[in-house]
Structures are given as structure tokens and as C-alpha cells.
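Quick one: C-alpha cells for this chain, please?
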Amino acid sequence: MRISLRQLQIFRAVAEAGSTTGAADLVPMSQSAASAALNELEGLLQANLFDRVGKRLLLNDNGRLLLPQARQMLDAAAMIERQFGALGESSGAGLQIGASTTIGIYVLPAILAAISASRTTLLRPRVTIANTADIAIGVENFDIDLGLVEGPCHQPDLEVEPWIKDELLIVAAPNHPILAGKAKRRISVQALRDSGWLLREPGSGTREAVEHALVPHLHTLPAAGEFSNAEAIKHAAAEGLGLACLSRLVVRDFIDMGRLVQLHSALPPLSRHFYLIHHRHKMLSARLTHFLQFCRNWNHLHSK
């Protein structure tokens, strides 16, 4: 086999950077060496992998076919290095874990603390916190080993496992007009329809879950504002800017302090699932398998 991992690494870097100059910065190496390696790979495959548009290199159909295979091979090689080479598990190199915002703030730290206290081999995890769509892309591209997300994923190459069931609450500031004269805080569906809602940005698992839970009953969610994380929505709701539908994990402290009030209505109980995701072609190391099982056990222990 004449194709080298180095050639695939440079090919991936060119695909990400859009030029051999940019790829040389990512690898790193000289621009001329990156260009030569790409030319060698295209020669071996007897196919052009990019369309040359000015100074830009854009993936063509051949390149798009090769890219996921190259990512898979490079990920497998990196795992071998972590297990047996200078980056082995005993060195403390950690898993690449991705978490959507609510999980990353309110669930994952407790899991990591518990697994650390159990003296397992999971050391120094590298955690990326972003919205569900970004975490799913990271897992799809093999940049993240395992994702813990709060919204469904639609990429066909991902294994998606329902994990923790999460309760959603509709909340408002105690002085919000929707509560006027409602001693028992029983709110009509029409009042909910007429109110402004504080929402996450498109691509957020929370946004998708809230729309899935509420739109069938309210038909629409007039936006009073969009925010990039649940904490900002919680504080905005406490200031009376609008209604919010958030995880109990997020709002329970403000409810306990009286800064937010849970609204009750004729709507059915609202909930969603958190999910564990990994690439279906991901080679699961012993450490990653152990972490997956620890998360599953965490669900069983904390759902009772």
C-alpha cells in the first residue's frame, strides 16, 4: 500500500483550510511540502480531489468521497498512538468529549467527578461545549470521540442512543403580566400563545426540543429574544423579558430563590431525552467503552 497516513493528514488539512498554504499551518510543514504530498496522493489515486478556483482548493466529488474515509483512518491511527505510543493512556491523554450546553454545565461535571473518584483510566478529558448541531458535526468528523447532546441528531453516520429523560418547565418572572390575578398560577393555553418567548438559537437541541414540545399545542412561539445559552435565557426570564421553557436542571435554583415561577397549564407534562452519540465507524477503545458504560449506569442510578 503506497498511500501514507501523512498524505491523508495533509489531504484533510487542505480540505479544512481550502489551500495548501493553510494546510501547511495546520500540519505544520512548508507549503511546498504540503503541495507535493497532495500531488503525490492524487497521482496514486489517479484522480483530482479538488477543483482549483483561483487560489482556493474546493473538494470535488472524488474528494468528498475520500474525506470521511480519511478521517476514519486518521482517527484509528490516533487511537493506536494513544493506547501504545508516546501518547498512551498512562500519559494522561484524555478522551475528546463533546457536550451540548445544558449537559456540559449541569450534568457532565458530576459524571467526570464521579468517574475520577472511582479511579478509572479516564484522565484529563478534553471537553468541548457547544450546541447540539456543532457537537454532532464534531463527532461526524471524528474530532470528538463521544457526544452528550440534548437534541436529536440527523447525520446518518452517527449512532444515537437515548440516554437521560429531562423534564422541561415553563417559567416566568413573579411579576410577569401572565401571572396577574392567577393565585394558583394556572395559565390558559391562549395566554401562552399570546406571550413572547425567550428561545435558544437555531441548531440548539433545547430549541428543537422546546419547539417539538410546544408548537403542536401553541401553533407558534413568538420570539421575545434569542440567546446562545440557557443561563442567559434564565436570567432574561427572571428580569421579565418573556416566558421560557427550560430544563428543570437549569431553573431549579431560581425557582427555589423565588426569582422564577413555574407556570402550570392544561398542557401535558413536557420532557425530552438527552442522547449519547458516536460515529458508527468509530473504533471504541477500552477507555471510551468504559466511559460510555459509566454514563449508561449514571442514567440508571439517577433516574430512580
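The first helix runs from residue 5 to 17.
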